Amino acid sequence: MNRPGNEAELAELVRGAAGPFVIRGGGTRGIGSPGPGAVLETGGLSGVALYEPGALTLVVGAGTPLTEVERVLAAEGQRLPFEPPDMRGLLGRGGESTIGGVVAANASGPRRVQAGACRDSLIGVRFVDGTGTVVRNGGRVMKNVTGIDLVKLMAGSHGTLGVLTEVAFKLLPAPEVQATLCVAGLADEAAVAAMAAALGSPYDVTGAAHIPGRGTFLRLEGFETSVRYRAGALARVLGRFGSVAEVGGDVWSQVRDVVPFHGQPGDVWRLSVTPSEAPALVVKAGAEAALYDWGGGLVWLRMAPGVDLRARLGRFTGHATRVRGEGAVPAFQPEPPALAALSAGLRAKFDPRGVLNPGLMKAA
């Protein structure tokens, strides 16, 4: 296993590569099937490079554990806006998630409906590409070296374009309080309509999720006086859908980490869809269980093992990713020809030798 201790060591290692690498942060959230290769672990690229609480800005080594990042921010009453999920329970893994792994997966939790995805909070990156060149974009440098927004491009690239060494984020203050409203007993279609009404209201909803059989949940965050006012007003908006009650407990970590699927058999799929189309797709899928997040724009499905969900659903607006499962079904959605050509061109530019996670995102 290769574990460089700094960016220069990493660049030298990649330049001298005799074969492919399997890039790994903490090994907690990777999906798909990378080809054979030597493991290249980023845990040595850790530490806070710059933290300015007054400017709501953090620059940190990509191998830094997510828990350490969250601890540093919590001490100043701040947080990452996008609420990164913990996939260990869902995937049955141990280890420590790294902040670089979060970026590589563009991992984003329930707050995405209000604060955006991981890539929307990312303001700078440093990485080593497949030639061993150190590339910088955004953040303190603010120079786009290729004419491409590499900050956005690297989020969700799963280590196929470069090995992240440093990431920079804009931050948010942690809220004073939060409140969760629950509408009980809604069928999936009514739940999506209720979430749409909440998200379309002026009450700044920061979470909208539906757990069939448990309830439809809406979250409000901020200063106590504001939250109390907005909770009352939102309850009146939701009243036409059914009985509304404020609930306690840690609902949002369960939604974020897909806790209802932990320890349950079967494959797990992640659908990104138009919310209004989600309930019909869940019925068509014949799923054993479902969980709706992002107001219905993200649907987690637990399926019987080996089911090719894409073949079962046919064409729809969105994409399906198999997050957990065995067998020959590709993890990633096949790209349309024009987008596939663009992706191939980017890989040829940034990894011309094909040494970084080759084949990981291959969809056929």
UniProtKB/TrEMBL annotation:
FAD-binding PCMH-type domain sequence ranges: 1-174
Keywords, ordered alphabetically: FAD, Flavoprotein
Sequence intervals crossing the membrane: none
InterPro entries attached to this UniProt entry: FAD-bd_PCMH, FAD-bd_PCMH-like_sf, FAD-bd_PCMH_sub2, FAD-linked_Oxase-like_C, Oxid_FAD_bind_N
Domain of life: Bacteria
Name of this protein: FAD-binding protein
Taxonomic source organism: Fuscovulum ytuae
